[in-house]
Design goal:
The protein is mostly beta strands. Helix content is about 10%, strand content about 35%. It folds into two domains: about 60 residues; about 220 residues, Fumarylacetoacetase-like, C-terminal domain (Fumarylacetoacetate hydrolase, domain 2, Alpha-Beta Complex). The chain is globular. About 45% of the residues are buried.
């Protein structure tokens, strides 16, 4: 199952995506503006999907929105969760704040209001606010069955599926405030999509995550990130167990699982995003998102 949210005919729609990713079928939903969230909640209640609300449409005829354009609450995010990425951070300004061992995952939040669609433009804040904008290609877990104190051994049973996010980050703001939330939560700083791929289609615990940058004025994308989810320091089940310790997770909650190495701040000198750049993320078994970065 693949669930998507889109605009067509001046209205919001939500529904399923064909296996080949070429068509969408709208489903009857009075809350289509909330994307796939009402459908995930229905399935969690055991109600099944609603009936079709119209004919199938070619994907090229619609404008994809984020599958969860209004997340239930802010996204939960894992930091420094690929070993090679942790090693590149050890050469940056974050070196003194990194943990000395891998006892616990680093978890922070990202405001849900910063979510945008898979092909929407990311608006860069004024240079007086930040000059160090970075990309992070990430697999995101969408919770399908709620729970609290979920044991690692049962964690995958609570997964509905998977999507892609770009955890766009203002590195200088992170350093300035000595925490990550503000630097991660500027408007438009969370492209998401192109849809949610259900657990029935993909086990994303071992899949490939890649990210390409196309610099302004260049026609050739440059591969910056290339990793596999099996290389996470803390696997998906451990992240779910950690995030649910004393906190109830609900259907539709999102956990971003961290980024592979190759982020802009890991280069010497750093390679920040600039107006006119584009960044594309592709995760095998899910699809791709690509966003332009504009001064906004």
């Amino acid at each position: 199952m693949r669930l998507a949210s889109w605009q067509w005919g001046g209205r919001h729609h939500v529904g399923t995506v064909s296996a080949d990713g070429r068509e969408v079928e709208p489903l009857r939903c009075d809350e289509a503006a909330r994307g796939a969230l009402p459908l995930i909640q229905r399935l969690a209640r055991g109600e099944g999907l609603p009936p079709a609300a119209g004919p199938r449409l070619p994907l090229s005829a619609v404008t994809l929105r984020a599958p969860l354009p209004q997340p239930l609450r802010g996204l939960l995010c894992a930091g420094r969760n690929y070993r090679a990425h942790a090693e590149e951070l050890a050469t940056t300004v974050f070196r003194d704040s990194l943990p000395k061992d891998d006892a616990w995952p680093i978890v922070f939040t990202k405001a849900g209001e910063c979510v945008i669609g898979p092909h929407d433009a990311v608006r860069l804040p004024s240079p007086s606010i930040t000059r160090q904008i970075d990309y992070e290609s990430e697999l995101a877990v969408v919770i399908g069955r709620g729970g609290r104190d979920i044991p690692r051994s049962r964690a995958i049973d609570h997964v509905f599926g998977w999507t892609i996010v770009n955890d766009v980050s203002a590195r200088d703001v992170q350093v300035r405030h000595q925490q990550w939330d503000l630097g991660k939560s500027f408007d438009t700083f969370c492209p998401m999509g192109p849809w949610i791929v259900g657990l029935d289609e993909l086990d994303a615990r071992d899949t490939r995550v890649r990210g390409w940058i196309t610099k302004k004025g260049s026609a050739a994308p440059e591969l910056r990130q290339d990793g596999r989810t099996r290389d996470m320091i803390f696997d998906i089940a451990t992240l779910i167990e950690t995030c649910s310790r004393g906190i109830t997770l609900h259907p539709g909650d999102v956990i971003a699982t961290g980024t592979p190495s190759g982020v802009g701040m890991g280069f010497d000198p750093p390679r920040w995003l600039e107006p006119g750049d584009r960044f594309r993320i592709e995760i095998d078994g899910i699809g791709a998102i690509e966003n332009a970065f504009e001064q906004g």
